[in-house]
Write a structure and sequence with these properties.
With about 325 residues, the protein is of the alpha/beta class. The chain has helices at about 5-10, 10-20, 45-60, 80-90, 100, 120-125, 130-140, 180-190, 200-210, 220-225, 250, 255-290, 305-310, 310-320, 325-330; strands at about 35-40, 65-70, 95, 145-150, 155-160, 175, 195, 215, 230-240, 245-250, 295-300. Helix 8 links the parallel strand 6 and strand 7. The longest helix is centred in the C-terminal third of the chain and has 35 residues, at about 255-290. The radius of gyration is 21 Å and the shape is globular.
């Protein structure tokens, strides 16, 4: 079977020709194409099951013209390395979080703005529509073809002090956040004390009172046992950062139009499966933490939280004025 691996040895040479302004011919599709897929997660994980379904359906619908293998657990490198490998065609397809993707694709940074999505269903609608198309165009400019959008859950607040129902409830709290200016600004805008720290340190810091709270999705809150030392979980869904099932444009361009369409359809179908699996995993985690004594509250009115983020948005748009239309597209949607 002829594979895309043959072409990988020419990727750097092709880049050299392009740098010289010389045309680079696109080879016709081979009779048999084998794709390599990158995945950071373990095999038994919603993303992993979605990717396996995707490549299996592609092989079936192309009658074996296009097959592939998913390499789980990050064995082909870290996400930043894998993004560059994919852009060069050394990796053919992958699922990437849009958080780290922002370093290569500025449009992807928009989804890291706190409270930009009003909920998971709205995220699905926007990412499957105009917002996803806009981010996909930015990715394509960087040599990445966006195929479908996976669900990575919604991050919410949890702490050991009290339920959070309004921004004022965060005031004075020491809250662990990821090391990102957007997330630090989010807590500070509500009067809290943002405390960036390594994720591995959070459990002990919660237990000893170094921090009062943190934020994450239900499976992370449950699997790390943070619910043992932070009993209040307030469903804010302040960060909803989807993941992208995407493909190298170099690999994509070697496929026939017929097989490209098969791949797109299979990708969208895999996203539906992955979303269902993720939602089931979240329900399972919530059942576990409630049984363990967690007090869960749904924040009924997110408008005050969204309003409190004005300074965060102003600073972001001052630094990224060309992303104003995309931010408004998402932020002002129902």
């Amino acid at each position: 079977m002829r594979t895309l691996n043959t072409a990988r040895s020419l990727a750097m040479g092709g880049a050299f020709l392009l740098a010289l302004g010389l045309p680079l011919a696109v080879a016709p599709q081979a009779q048999g194409v084998e794709l390599r897929g990158w995945n950071i997660h373990v095999p038994d994980y919603p993303v992993s099951h979605g990717m396996e379904q995707f490549i299996a359906e592609v092989a079936e619908k192309t009658d074996g013209r296009v097959t592939g293998e998913v390499f789980h657990g990050g064995v082909l490198g870290s996400q930043p390395d894998a993004i560059e490998q994919l852009r060069l065609g050394a990796i053919d397809f992958a699922v990437f979080s849009l958080g780290p993707m922002g370093q290569a694709v500025p449009e992807a940074n928009v989804v890291s703005l706190p409270f930009i999505f009003k909920g998971i269903d709205q995220m699905y609608s926007l990412m499957d529509g105009a917002a996803g198309d806009a981010i996909g165009e930015g990715m394509l400019d960087k040599g990445i073809v966006a195929l479908a959008w996976y669900d990575a859950g919604a991050r919410s607040f949890y702490n050991s002090v009290r339920p959070i129902n309004s921004p004022g409830d965060v005031e004075g709290m020491k809250v662990r956040v990821m090391n990102n200016d957007l997330f630090v600004g989010m807590i500070e805008s509500m009067g809290g004390n943002a405390t960036p720290m390594a994720f591995a340190e959070v459990y002990q810091s919660l237990r000893t009172g170094v921090v009062d709270g943190a934020e994450n999705n239900p499976p992370s809150y449950e699997s790390t046992n943070h619910y043992e030392v932070a009993k209040y979980y307030s469903i804010s869904e302040h960060l909803i950062i989807p993941e992208c099932l995407c493909m190298s444009k170099i690999s994509w361009d070697r496929l026939s139009a017929e097989d490209q369409e098969i791949i797109r359809v299979a990708a969208r179908a895999s996203a539906e499966t992955q979303r269902e699996l993720w939602q089931a995993r979240e329900r399972q985690s919530m059942d576990t933490v409630v049984a363990g004594g967690t007090v869960v509250n749904q924040i009924a009115d997110k408008a005050p939280f969204q309003d409190s983020m004005s300074a965060v948005y102003d600073k972001f748009l001052e630094q990224n004025p060309d992303l104003t239309d995309l931010v408004n597209l998402i932020r002002l949607s129902d």
